[in-house]
Each structure stands twice: as structure tokens, then as C-alpha cells.
Design goal:
There is one protein chain. By secondary structure, the chain is mainly beta. It is about 10% helix and about 30% strand. It has 3 helices and 11 strands. It has a 5-stranded mixed beta sheet with strand order 2-1-5-4-3, with helices on one face. Strands 8-6-9 form a 3-stranded mixed beta sheet, with no helix packed on it. The chain has a 3-stranded antiparallel beta sheet with strand order 7-11-10. The longest helix is centred in the first third of the chain and has 10 residues. The radius of gyration is 43 Å and the shape is elongated.
Length: about 210
């Protein structure tokens, strides 16, 4: 854990993960709390500047704290919380997107809010909320552009699918008719079978000769 002490630079300290988790859990939103590194050192007010977590377990692997005074103006990220549900989204006419999950603000330690409240219940189709629409608490400001997007709704268009009105004709072979086989290859379906040759009638002249 890195601790940035005012006027003294950065100091590396160690802490139990259990104690760190409990402290951050009790500090909702932007974490500002009191810290004493050891029994003999003075208690100082610190703010969490950065948290690094394991990509799989999500456990905290590194924490950066910075000492702050009561009159310091701090630049810090504050969570954005969305409240309500637009009627157009509830009726599945539009979809909602919330690209801004944290807002960078400037404030004194005592004025830092736990979160930024954003009411989205009155949004309509193809609507948007930008930074300029936010009502920040007293003593809190942001340097982000006023047109930076916070939330937006997109009207969902119906997709039409063309269904053929007529079925394609399917040509099938006549029932009961089979083809001949030539050199082991199947004959074409529907080929006519040659009728067997009739026996040739004997010539009358030949019949007379036999009687003689």
C-alpha cells in the first residue's frame, strides 16, 4: 500500500487485506477516512486515490492513499447512481445506455458526496442527460464538458421480415417409373423402361417346308 504524506512524499506501508476491505466497505462512495500508520504516529485524514484488484479474484492487491487537509480541494472520482426507470424503457420502446458510471469532481473532503444522484425516470424516446443537466451538491464542481453524455435512450425500431407469398413448385418424379442402369450408373429418374421385344412370327413359307 502506498501512502502519500503531505510534504513528505510517498511512504510504503503494509496492511491486512481484511482490514482494508472492512475500511473500504464502511466508507461508501468516495472513500475518505482517518488513518494512523502506527501507535506513535499522528492520525491523518486520507482519501483513496487508486485501487488495483486482481483480474480474477477481484481481491485488492494495491492501494494508494493520499493525506488531505480540511481546506484542500480534492480531485476525485465519485460513483454515479441512476434512479427510476423511463416509461419508454419499461414499455420496451427504447433501450437505456449509461456510459458514465463515475464522475470526476473537485471538492473539499467534507463536501465530497458518496455518489451523484441522477433521476432518469422522466426520460423519453431518443432522450439524453448530459453533465450540464446534473445538480451537483454545494461545494462540488466538475471540469468535464457540459455536453459530456451521462445517460441516453435509443428508440428501438421494428424490423420487418419479407415472407414469400407463393411457394416454389417442386418437381417430383412420376410414381412407379424407374430408370435403367448403364455401366453401373443409375439412370435418370423418370426415364422410361424399354418394352421387351415380341417374339417374331414364323414365315408362312417356312411352315410349309416343315410339313414336307
Amino acid at each position: 500500500m502506498a501512502l502519500i504524506v503531505k510534504g513528505k512524499g510517498t511512504r510504503l506501508v503494509q496492511a491486512l487485506q481484511k482490514d482494508v476491505r472492512n475500511t473500504l466497505r464502511l466508507s461508501s462512495g468516495a472513500a475518505v477516512f482517518k488513518l494512523s500508520v502506527d501507535a506513535e504516529s499522528r492520525e491523518m485524514q486520507v482519501v483513496v486515490k487508486d485501487v488495483q484488484r486482481d483480474s480474477i479474484s477481484r481481491g485488492i492487491i494495491h492501494l494508494t492513499l493520499q493525506e488531505v487537509k480540511d481546506d484542500d480541494i480534492i480531485r476525485i472520482m465519485v460513483p454515479v447512481e441512476f434512479h427510476g426507470e423511463p416509461d419508454c424503457v419499461n414499455k420496451k420502446r427504447s433501450s437505456l445506455m449509461t456510459p458514465m458510471m463515475n464522475l470526476e469532481v473537485y471538492a473539499k473532503p467534507a463536501d465530497i458526496p458518496d455518489h451523484i444522484h441522477v433521476d432518469i425516470s422522466q426520460m423519453t424516446d431518443n432522450d439524453k442527460i448530459v453533465v450540464g443537466d446534473l445538480k451537483l451538491p454545494e461545494g462540488v464542481s466538475t471540469h468535464l464538458p457540459s455536453d459530456a453524455l451521462v445517460a441516453t435512450t435509443f428508440h428501438m425500431r421494428a424490423v420487418s421480415i419479407d415472407v414469400p407469398t407463393t411457394a416454389e413448385a417442386v418437381v417430383e418424379p412420376e410414381p412407379g417409373v424407374e430408370g435403367e442402369t448403364v455401366e453401373g450408373e443409375p439412370a435418370a429418374v423418370g426415364a422410361a423402361v424399354a418394352a421387351p421385344e415380341k417374339a417374331k412370327a414364323p414365315d408362312k413359307g417356312e411352315k410349309g417346308k416343315d410339313k414336307k
